[in-house]
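One thing: mind reviewing this one?
=====
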Amino acid sequence: MNPKISSDFLKAIAIPETVQSSPGKIGNSKIGSAVERAIAWRLGEINHVSNTLINRNLQLMYESSGFQVALGKPGKEYFLDKRQNVHDMKPTLVLDGSEYDYSPTFTQIFDDFQQIANSTSESAEFALVTIACLLFKAAYLLEHEYSNESLDQNGVPLFKWTPSKVVLSTLLNEWPTITAGRKVDSVEIPTDVYLYLLDCLAYNEDVKYQGAFKAKTKNTGRRNNLLTVVHVIAVVLGRASIAELIGKATQQRGVSPIQNRKAYEVFPWLVGGVDPKVF
């Protein structure tokens, strides 16, 4: 066994056998109340005459390595004339009391993972496989819980991602930071902070589609977006076809979620299997 991969790590990263066939049931039971709590957060200050932002109200979600990860209201879609999303939030990084200069699009996220895949580091494949497994589980809210230790601005428990400590610490030991952006605009972000930011992006997607636009399926929002990221990681690692990724994206409004069966095949850690490319 690769010394970086302990039996505790493999046990923690796997989805429980009883959940593997239908992970969506777990997420479906959690989405509604999580969206309702976010919708109840206060808006920041708005100039209603000019319909412009004065300042956002930030809801702190996560803290690590000196960074804070927050959701700020309102987001930019609040100010749209067409298809306005009054509940839109901006996932925000804060460092030393100031907003950190990184606000990723999904295109930028895909590029960030491509840069890891292009690395000559022996840990690159391990890092991307671990991230893919974490994000797959996050897509279905398998490790999300209400935290009685973290109350939101309305005094109720926050709905937070609580990934396994052994998985997260092993990942940080092997890949402590992610270079986000490229060339002169790139910034170094701790890997766990980067993942928490992705979770906040996904939370906002659920609020948008499950809250504002009343989507008919729970697949729209967090799930489609994070499973698309997992699909992208599979492609940059050479474990899935780029043609299938792009083909689905052109048919499904820019998203291309990996199917569960395919995810279990290319990332066997999810089902307690051996990954021959990492061992």
